[in-house]
Amino acid sequence: MNDNQLLRYSRQILLPQIDVAGQQRLLAAQVLIIGAGGLGSPVAMYLAAAGVGSLTIYDDDVVDLSNLQRQIAHHTPDIGMDKTISSQQTLNKLNPDVQVRAVKQRLAGELLDAEVKTADVVVDCSDNFATRFAINKACVTHQTPLVSGAAIRFEGQVAVFTPGHNDSPCYNCLYQSDGEELVNCATNGVIAPITGIIGSIQALETLKLIMGIGTPLTGKLLLIDGLSMEINTLRLKKNPACPSCGSVGT
């Protein structure tokens, strides 16, 4: 690290759990973020601010006026711009030392497999079941840690899956692939801060995984109700008959 980096990250380097060694791990890390919307915005911004060395962001959408209520990586002049490019510009201003690769594409198939294989952590900020199950399958295949989040109305949830380690369940243990499609913000609404809360927790869990500190939410589902401000944590068990991970880590 150079002097500017030591100063930029000094407040977290002061933490004994992080120190210089932890910051070096962040600088060397590669994180794949899928989705550049309400969750992907705070995830990407906090990871960039913390000094994660390389961020790859996938999203196939463009910035719409209705996004600006909660998708804080985008601004009014960005309307009509690819979300990935808008995010990249915001992150470059926030921390020019971070390498940001922005791809306007729905990540799937062999490309998804290749991206997950090279990532240290995958952060799922997508908004549909098909993508979530595909991401989960790729993470199980390559035993890549997955940080999953969702937010709708006043509610949100976060879970961490570490396939092949510590008898971790996977996303498919929690949700069945033939279940109903996810509700979405366009039809059900969402309060802006809940996306910030969930995205921030996803970013925190990602940093913990990279640095190997604390206790990640592996095997747990964190549930937040913003209206009542109740926070609950449910323990998740690995499903031996899971079609995705039943034969992994056993």
UniProtKB/TrEMBL annotation:
Gene source species: Methylovulum psychrotolerans
Domain THIF-type NAD/FAD binding fold intervals: 9-243
Signal sequence region: none
Protein family per UniProt: Belongs to the HesA/MoeB/ThiF family.
UniProt key word Transferase: yes
A molecular-function term among this protein's GO annotations: thiosulfate-cyanide sulfurtransferase activity
GO cellular component: cytosol
Coiled coil: none
Keyword Nucleotidyltransferase in annotation: yes
Entry keyword set: Nucleotidyltransferase, Transferase
Top-level taxon of the source organism: Bacteria
Name of the protein in its database record: Molybdopterin-synthase adenylyltransferase MoeB
Gene3D superfamilies assigned to the protein according to its UniProt record, in alphabetical order: NAD(P)-binding Rossmann-like Domain
